[in-house]
Design brief:
Elements: H1 2-37, H2 42-65, H3 81-112, H4 125-152, H5 157-161, H6 166-176, H7 182-198
Length: 199
């Protein structure tokens, strides 16, 4: 099941990358046309705008799965495991509630805009607002899944709630590959943490 989900989210990441590339291409094309010919493509500007919205919404789903949304773990990393579990469940529950509100609001917008279309491309606004339903439902499901995983794997709660930085991940990879001793790894990890605290 996890392998299937990994493939699905890998596909989502690739799709998001394609959308981002298309958005950059259309924006660049419009800039060149305006500078060289003093005239841009109206549909290109509109398409780039809605591609940006799509990338934001779809990317939020992938970020939730990868636990890559911005978060502050300063408090969570200092409290004991039972409190970490409590705070984590509260935070994930709040996320689920907010996403249900997003789904509800987006659903109302879809119903209100069934006949409305965008000016240049004629894209139904209902389709654009449906992205809110898709994103809200997906993140809500992921938040509930996170709660279930945390409750069924209480020993891993410290690892779940702590946000690792890119430097820490690189150090961990080097340590596991045998490129440095445990003492060197601990020393460099402490230096990284001190550097982050000084910033």
């Amino acid at each position: 099941m996890n392998k299937l989900l990994d493939k699905v989210f890998k596909g989502i990441d690739i799709f998001t990358g394609i959308l981002t590339g298309a958005m950059v291409l259309f924006v660049f094309l419009n800039v060149v046309l305006r500078m060289v010919f003093n005239s841009g493509l109206t549909w290109s500007e509109e398409l780039a705008r809605y591609l940006f919205v799509s990338v934001t919404y779809i990317g939020a789903i992938s970020a939730m799965r990868a636990n890559a949304h911005m978060t502050v773990d300063m408090l969570l990393s200092k409290v004991k495991a039972p409190l970490q579990m409590t705070f984590y469940i509260i935070s994930q529950s709040l996320i689920a509630i907010l996403m249900m509100m997003l789904v509800h609001g987006s659903y109302k917008m879809v119903l209100q805009n069934t006949a409305a279309r965008t000016a240049a491309l004629g894209i139904p606004y209902a389709l654009l607002y449906f992205l809110g339903i898709l994103t809200g439902a997906a993140i809500c499901i992921l938040a509930v899944a996170n709660i279930i995983y945390a409750v069924t794997h209480p020993a891993e709660i410290s690892k779940i709630v702590t946000v690792s930085t890119e430097d820490e991940e690189l150090l961990a990879e080097a340590a596991s590959a045998g490129d440095m001793s445990d003492e060197e790894y601990r020393a460099m990890l402490n230096d990284t943490e001190k550097g982050g605290n000084n910033e």
